[in-house]
């Protein structure tokens, strides 16, 4: 019952709520109808407005339709224009395709032409380098032939000069044979009394040229009296008193007959002078000379002594130092500057004094011999006057100090003083039985021209020539000397010169041995230690790098640098040749060639960079020992230190 009553109550409650809602809706509905009734007029007004709006909308629609038609017409025009533009664009594209096609064709033709020109250029380059190589070889061959021709001409002139002297001697002796025959024995006695060495030299025969000329004259003489005179000339009595030059030539023995010694300074210092003197004489001057010579010899034969040889030293005039130059350019004006105004007798006497200097110890020299040696052998005629006033013998010369050389002889140049000091000490060693050093054969002309050209630094020739740098001085040069006195500031050039000197020292300054080794490897890629700068350039051409070979001119790159300098690798060689860094194949080729040439000999890695240092110790350990107590051996600072 309770449940039913409770549900009934709920239903009653819901019904009441529904009643309230319905009543509210009824009230609202009645109020809305009144509002609608009241706004009917407004609805009419709104309807009129809507109709007006509808008319306006229709008008707008008509306008839009007209605009649409207009736009369609414009669209059609635009479509036509687009079609025209497309047609124009297609034509332009066709023209562009034709242009591109023509351009590609022309480009290919241009590339083909460029390739053809490049091939032609390469061919011309090869021909150019072949012509340069042929020109270089022809120049070298011409120079070699010219030097050989000069040597032969020099030898011919020497023989002609000796023949002329022999004829003069023969003419002089035939003038007064009885008087000479009577004075022969006293002369021999005086010679034996003065010096035993001169007796040995007087017993020697005449030179081959003089003997040949005498035999020729003897055979072709028609008159019996002439034959008797010729026989007297070659008799033993008169063979004891020939010219000093003939004796000196005979003392040389077999050595004087070799071509190398004929070209050496020791032989050419007197023979070249005879060549020049004989070359400039005319037939009339020869007759005058013979007459003057006969008169003087008649006056001197009564004395019967060789002391007269030393008595004319103070009255001599200085000869041109270039007269005795040991160089290849024998046709220079300096060589022909000797004139007859100096007196042919003084010239002959000067040559005799030079021969005495060669054949006798320095301690036995007289004043005239010292002056002739200073002027001719040392090429220092500027100090002759002071020497004649202060130095009267070779003993005095041996006792001179550096201060005496500067104050007494006026030798203000440090390099000139050093040259004199080294030469004096070399002669002192020769008196002790050691003999003159091989460096004595290298005069300053050979050093300034031949040696500097071999090491590839001919640009310093004038400085070496000015300071009279000879072989002895080369052995004493240091890096400081090169920079201070010779103005060589480039470090690599200093190293190049010092290594060139080290090579000479390894060979004991024997230039004949050096030349022999260079001749053996001239056409073979062996023994690069002795290669000259020109031989290195030839090797560069042989390994197909001829376009870079000219880069080694005046660079100082020679065989001793390649072998003895541990820092000189392929990078340094490529830099010297001027090979660009981006040419890796060329540099790699150079590495292989240098390893093949130098690698086994030097035992070092040529492709690695190394620190600068001194010469290899093993090289210095094999150098010849040096003497003691001599400045020429005292200048030992030849160690090379690259900077």
Automatic annotation (TrEMBL):
Annotated coiled-coil segments of the chain: 40-176
Region (Disordered): 237-345, 610-643
Domain SAM positions: 365-430, 451-507
Keyword Nucleotide-binding listed: no
Biased amino acid composition, Polar residues: 329-342
Transmembrane segments: none
UniProt keyword terms in alphabetical order: Coiled coil
Classification via Pfam families: Kazrin, SAM_1, SAM_2
Xref: InterPro entries: Kazrin (IPR037614), Kazrin_N (IPR059089), SAM (IPR001660), SAM/pointed_sf (IPR013761)
Protein name: Kazrin, periplakin interacting protein a
The species this protein was found in: Acanthochromis polyacanthus (spiny chromis)
